[in-house]
Amino acid sequence: MRHSPARIVSLPRAAASTAAVFAAALAATLAVAGPAAAAATITVVGEAKRTAPPDMAVLTTGVVTNAKTADDALAANSKAVSEVIAALKAAGIAPNDISTSSFSIQPQQSYPQPPSREQPKLIGFEVRNSVRITVRDLGKLGGLLDKVVQSGANQASGLSFSLADTDRLEGEARAASVKDAIEQAKGVAAAAGLRLTRIMSIQPEGQSGGPIIPAPMMMKADSARMAVPVEAGEIEVRARTVLVYEAEPQ
Q1: How far is CA 64 from the centre of its chain?
Q2: What whole-number distance in Å separates Cα of residue 190 and Cα of residue 70?
Q3: Is there a contact between 56 and 62 (Cβ–Cβ < 8 Å)?
């Protein structure tokens, strides 16, 4: 069987040029796709904190009174609270820094001991009235607490410290957390043999807090009239930043 001799097919000049352009385009596409396919992401969480002494306090205090009738309990309570508020104003607390935080009138009952089947008996009424005080000069806080007790307050439900302006402290903590995240990303990339190329996302978070005395405290006047010792401590502001980097092989 005879085979036909092989033929060499020559493309027209225009077709050859088109094929060359296509091959070049394909090579360029593969060159770009190679590094992109090898791209990686690095996610780090930067953290930082900043502290500062507080410059203000919020105190909640009040009066609890008991009497046989609701009218008597209310009258005694109103008189005592009025004296507390007058003492606060005399100590230099501005009227807009004094506000009523809670008020209640509750019946008081006596419950018989088992096995008695007698019904509970009404024995009186309890009135509670609390005020919230903002103290903007911490140097006066100890003496103010003493004045509040001397004026008739017999209960305090909370004392907290804070900053009038936390923006500066929060900004410093946030900036420091970003720097911490960047340094972490650099370290991770170097250890993995990668090069950081660009930041893909930044997610800042923040949280602040301070010392608080939340437990209710019964207060009793002391004839010595000593200023109450108070330690304000420091306000701590924390910040976190989640940083996502794109990286590629070096």
Answers
A1: 33
A2: 75
A3: no
Q: What is the pLDDT along the chain (250 residues), one digit of tens a residue?
A: 444 443 333 334 443 343 333 333 333 333 444 444 457 999 999 999 999 999 999 999 999 999 999 999 999 999 999 999 999 999 999 999 999 999 999 999 998 888 888 888 999 999 999 999 999 999 888 889 889 999 999 988 888 898 988 899 999 999 999 999 999 999 999 999 999 999 999 999 866 554 433 333 334 444 344 566 777 788 899 999 999 999 999 8
Sign for the CA dihedral angle at 68, 70, 75, 80 comes to: positive
pTM of the model: 0.63
Peptide bond just before 216 cis, omega within 30 deg: no
- The secondary structure of 180-241 as a DSSP string is HHHHHHHHHHHHHTEEEEEEEEEEEEEEEE--EE-S-EE----TT-PPPP-----EEEEEEE
Distance CA 82, CA 99 (A): 12
- Cα gap 240→176, rounded to integer Å: 9
* Eight-class DSSP state of 39: -
CB atoms within 10 A of CB 144: 25
CB 112 within 8 A of CB 120: yes
Q: Is 116 helix (H, G, I), strand (E, B) or coil?
A: coil
Instruction: Specify the length of the chain in residues.
Output: 250
Sequence-separated (6 or more) residues with CB below 8 Å from residue 118: 112
